[in-house]
Design brief:
alpha/beta, Rossmann fold, 14 helices, about 20% strand
Length: about 325
């Protein structure tokens, strides 16, 4: 485009790229006196420089595959029910009675990540519930596994109030990792055990909305970790908390259930059927039911055996 062509275009009111592109070239050529072929060539150059790049569907699929992975829970039957396992980019919650039998799901998933995937796990313990000896025993039962090296892939952080938890999650959201620690470069799974125990005290004045802001900040950070950093987040909570008022003996559930209801993308209800059965032959068994999912039909359940070495069908 020469200065003379630019001057002719400005004389007929074409002063921007948008106004030039939106004009009919035949009309513009008649008004400005610039040849049609010249105007068409200018238009092709402007479109090539300023138009958004064309992205094919296969390219988008490759991006999704590269940034999404499936974390196996270490049990083929349960993985099949979940169509592969726990997805990165999702928040998965296991609702248990917090017994050692029910918590086998968490420990089994950790063992699978550090041994099969060779990735790291961050275990955020809010109730002093982590048992490293049990994890070591499960790792030792796996063939060809160096227990010491596998244990180094698991980092435990203790957070006993909502402020410590928010601080820890905020640090995780820093790129490229907290203090450039190489551990976080291979981090794939974040496990938070007893998150409701941590946030419940902040909701003591729920009627005045005090503490609800902490929950919303917590949810925002969890969503950022799953969507922006492609981590898999596995939460473990109790089935619910009951409180008794000073003025009555009637127990009722706290409001944290309503606040937390929509947060997890996938929710697994884990029931220790050993405690529900009087049959001494039923020993170390749990029932896992898919009670919430954004991508799977609800209702499927599996019964699994549990021992010191993990989950079995």
């Amino acid at each position: 485009m020469t200065p003379m062509v630019l001057q002719k275009l400005q004389s007929v009111g074409v002063v921007s790229v948008v106004s030039f592109i939106s004009h009919d070239l035949d009309v513009l050529a008649a008004k400005s006196g610039v040849g049609y072929n010249e105007l068409a060539a200018i238009r092709r150059v402007l479109i090539a420089e300023h138009a958004a790049p064309v992205v094919g569907g296969s390219s988008l699929f490759d991006v999704v595959v590269a940034t999404t992975s499936i974390v196996s829970v270490g049990c083929r039957t349960l993985d099949n029910m979940l169509e592969g396992g726990i997805f990165t980019g999702e928040i998965t919650e296991a609702v248990t009675d917090r017994s050692g039998v029910s918590d086998a799901l968490l420990m089994n998933t950790i063992v699978s990540v550090v041994t099969v995937m060779n990735k790291n796990v961050l275990f955020i313990d809010t109730s002093n519930h982590f048992d490293v000896s049990r994890l070591a025993a499960m790792l030792a039962s796996q063939p060809d596994v160096d227990v010491e090296s596998a244990l180094k892939r698991v980092k435990v952080a203790k957070c006993f109030d909502v402020f410590e938890l928010l601080s820890k999650l905020s640090t995780l959201c820093e790129a490229p990792g907290p203090s450039n620690d190489s551990f976080y470069c291979s981090l794939k799974l974040i496990v938070i055990d007893g998150i409701v125990d941590c946030i419940l005290p902040s909701l003591s004045h729920i009627h005045s909305n005090s503490g609800c802001g902490y929950v919303s900040q917590l949810v925002r950070l969890l969503r950022m970790l799953t969507t922006d950093f492609c981590y898999a987040v596995l939460l473990c909570n109790g089935a619910g908390h009951t409180v008794t008022s000073k003025n009555t003996t009637i127990s009722k559930r706290t409001a944290v259930g309503r606040l937390w209801l929509t947060v997890p993308d996938t929710r697994l209800s884990v029931i220790d059927i050993t405690a529900e059965s009087n049959d001494p032959a039923v020993s170390g068994r749990i029932k896992v039911t898919l009670s919430k999912s954004n991508r799977l039909p609800l209702g499927p359940c599996v019964e699994l055996k549990v021992n010191d070495h993990g989950l079995f069908t």
